[in-house]
């Protein structure tokens, strides 16, 4: 896997460098070295990322929720004494 493909896979699964660091529980400097080509990307990491990227390409997020919204919740005005009293 090339560094360019590595970055492309991360982009396709919507991951940042920090996300893959958390997933692999590794050092950020190591990931940055893989991204830059300073270090060779291990085969097991490359295979795993390719599988994730393929899965994400074939299973796009549902579009039905793109326009979904929630009405703003009414917030209490805690400066009013009646709100501070407990209902009994």
Please characterize this protein's 3D structure.
This protein has a domain of 56 residues. It is mainly alpha-helical and 88 residues long. Helix 1 packs parallel to helix 4. The protein has five helices and no strands.
What is the fold's blueprint, element by element?
Layout: H1 3-12, H2 17-24, H3 28-36, H4 43-58, H5 81-84
Helix pairs in contact: 1-4
Briefly, what is this?
The chain is mostly helical. Helix content is 53%, strand content 0%.
Shape field: elongated
* First-last Cα distance: 66 Å
Structural class estimated from helices and strands: mainly alpha
The count of helical stretches stands at: 5
List segments where confidence is low: pLDDT < 50 over at least 5 consecutive residues: none
- Residue fraction in strands: under 5%
Number of strands: 0
> How can the largest sheet be summarized?
none
Order of secondary-structure elements: HHHHH
Secondary structure: helix percent: 40-55%
**Mean pLDDT over the full residue set:** 88
